[in-house]
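Fold it.
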Amino acid sequence: MAVPLYVFLGFLEAGKTSFIQETLEDPDFNTGEKTLLVLCEDGETEYVPEKFAGGNVAVLPVEGQQALTRELFEEYTKKHRVDRVLVEYNGMWPVQALYDALPKGWEIFQMMTVADSSTFPAYLANMRQLAVEKVQEPDVVIFNRVTDATDKATLHRAVRMVNRRAQILFETVNGEVEPDTIVDELPFDMDADVVEIGDEDYGLFYIDIFDNVKKYLGKTIRFKAYVCQTKRVPEGCFVAGRFGMTCCAEDISFIGLICEAENAGQLKHRTWVTVTARVTVKKHAIYQGPGPWLQAESVTPAQPPEDELVYFV
């Protein structure tokens, strides 16, 4: 039987300890299961175990990233039966280090990020890779210490550019929790005869067309793209896209759409073109199911955009 793992991400002093303390005090959550609490950082706030509901919580400190090993967890579980595991993860450690250390049979049941709304934008600006990791995979992202002056839209976009499924919550300084009600506004006119996608808007367009492809069906769109000639698509097609960077240079990947065009075979690989095409949907292995399929009206040579990379935050 798999051991469920609850992972709490966030930077130091973001409020992870207080959140986990409240979670373990909740009798609906803590009903006596043998719980292992793994501590990967030591903040100013300390746990108060005597307040944990149900008891039966053991604490395992991890002294430094080098100590975060599969052997550590396997040795512990050999000596002690564990029903579930909670991890307060160090905000300065890459999340991959945790994945690498998970023993066989431990499965992430829920991942949550607790972030200080007043400091997260600074982390995003100065430590982009670590900040993006905190919002890229969690099921829930809670921005706390929210005031009337908090720019919720910026925080919302930081999450949505890399994680479309996460639930976003805002916790005010008074302790009230508010749902994220921000509606993503598109920077292009969906009612135009030809929907013009600006060079700087390709990333948002790419995410939106995969999330909401039905609203694009039958629309004619125009955007600048890099030609990718690949045998993975049918004859008469190419992939029109851009290189996108989520957080760092090591994270650059090509993000594109299959485009069917009369002159597809004449297009030179790794050149820039302007694509004007009608949006349909077809199933293909590249999409691992149905996805947007462009039927080109024209594909013409173009100059590269001012910034050839697409940024998601």
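The radius of gyration is 23 Å.
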